[in-house]
Amino acid sequence: MADFKHTATFTGTEPISLDEAKAYLRVSTTADNAYITSLISTARETIEKDTNTALVTNSYKEYLDGFPVSNGGIIDLQVSGALNTSTPVSISYMGSDSVTHDITLVLDTDFVSGEFRGRPRLQPINVWATARDLIGSVKISYTIDPIVATELPLIQAMYLLISHFYDNRSPIVYGSVKEMPIGYKKLIRPYKNFYF
Asked: Which comes out higher in pLDDT, residue 136 or 4?
């Protein structure tokens, strides 16, 4: 099981454009363009973290405490989506010789790509190398393509977050305290990838 993951800085096209977000917010001026653009990215990243589902093509790194030995050595990646096979999967690991080894995996030579509950998996053709039994001794770098980027409920959830953050810019609310509408949780629930 991977300890944690992080993504590279995303520089591509967001699922919602600035014009679409402004139309939803009913904003006609350009004064808040930069702020709304940042809210679009924030909303996408929040949904990706809440669901462990990729909405855009992005790179990820996961850290394991060694290679799995049970279940045929299969590594189930955390992020739901399609493994981008045009970008190499690389592994860096601390070997039993206390030396860091960097390898680039070749599909159908080093591993077979599969899927389990929407998450990509890496199954070794032979066996993984022996890594030291240390926290984070194995680092896997890979790229995921979205498979649900155009799903209407997730796009609607992005709009809800953008609107919520735009309307509530201050950490202090005067009057009654309000939580994010329950509609957001209902929209993302079917897409949540429960990683064990």
From this structure: 136
